[in-house]
Design brief:
Elements (H helix, E strand, L loop, with lengths): L1 E5 L1 H6 L1 E2 L3 H12 L9 H17 L1 H10 L20 H9 L3 H14 L6 H8 L3 H17 L3 H22 L1 H4 L7 E6 L2 E6 L5 E3 L7 E5 L5 E3 L7 E5 L5 H10 L3 H6 L1 H9 L6 H8 L3 H13 L3 E6 L2 E6 L1 H13 L14 H5 L4
Parallel strand pairs: 1-5, 2-6, 6-8
Antiparallel strand pairs: 1-4, 3-4, 7-8, 9-10
Helix pairs in contact: 2-8, 3-4, 3-8, 4-7, 4-8, 5-8, 9-14, 13-15, 14-15
Amino acid sequence: MLEFDVDPQDLAASRFAISPINETGRALDVLSGYRGDVALRPWADRARGRFNDLCRQVPPVRALVTLGHTDGYQPDFISPPPTGPRETMADQLEIVRATPFDQARQELHRTITERSGPVAEEVRATLQAPDVVAWLAAGLEAVWHELIEPDWPAIHAILEQDLLHRAGLLLAYGWAEALTDLSAHVSWRSHENGGSITADVPWDERCPPDSDGLLFVPTIFGPLAFCTDPPWRRAILYPARGRATLTHRHVQEDHGDALSELVTRTRALLLRAMRQPVTTTQLTRQHGLSLGTTGHHLSILRRSGLIISTRSGKFVLYRRTALGDALVAANTSADPSADPSADTSADQGRTGADPIR
């Protein structure tokens, strides 16, 4: 069992954040077939051709794939926890490139030693090269530009939506409620001087309070994972809510349905996306629409009684009404593939059973 002890100072410093570099690395696991995820299969099918080209043309990408094929330790330096909520891929790549060679060599040696199965000689040569840090950073950058960056607005919108959901729970009910559905393998226990976050993992480790707090990082492509080794900030990476909407955006473009015929395709797309409260900006990013177009359709849906809006601080949140839920549910019963909200893959199979350290 893994246990993070937290005191009030620790909790005050804890944050939710988004990690572009983690999404980049974990997408390789999905595309290589190491971590199957039914919800992400349409996205993987679209991207696999570009992934195969990268593996042939960019040797460091093959090394990154090999490093990801383990349920044990993975090198921390190629996926550093974000230092803030708005860290970009360029920011994180700079952190990777600044990794001391000795640290990189130790982390890579640990991964290869603990990994089961052979390592190709070409990959081993890459990992033992004196410029391995620069090579792996270049590989990550290539994967980002070819596979992740084109879909980043939609990916970021899903991750941001998860953060907004948990921030609302945190403000209204506290940490226990904000973490309650993080994963079936993670739980919160209140103590007199704070609390502890426990994770059901196949090793025993206890992390004392740290004035830097914890980072909670949602992920679309990755499983439940943890960062506990210094010098990195302690972090819990967890499957984001609504991950299936990434693929639904593309699937929906190819298939007509009764709901689209009733309220137009764009309004149907927006209505389905509001299974939980969202902002206009999130919908705009997720579906590639302009703010004006999104606002126009939201206004019509609201006047029709299908959605309502509420203010939360500086945000205006939109969500479906009971009528809107019924309309989506009726259409989904006729075509289950039309609704991405039933995303049950986040805590199943390899993702939940084998958390990564």
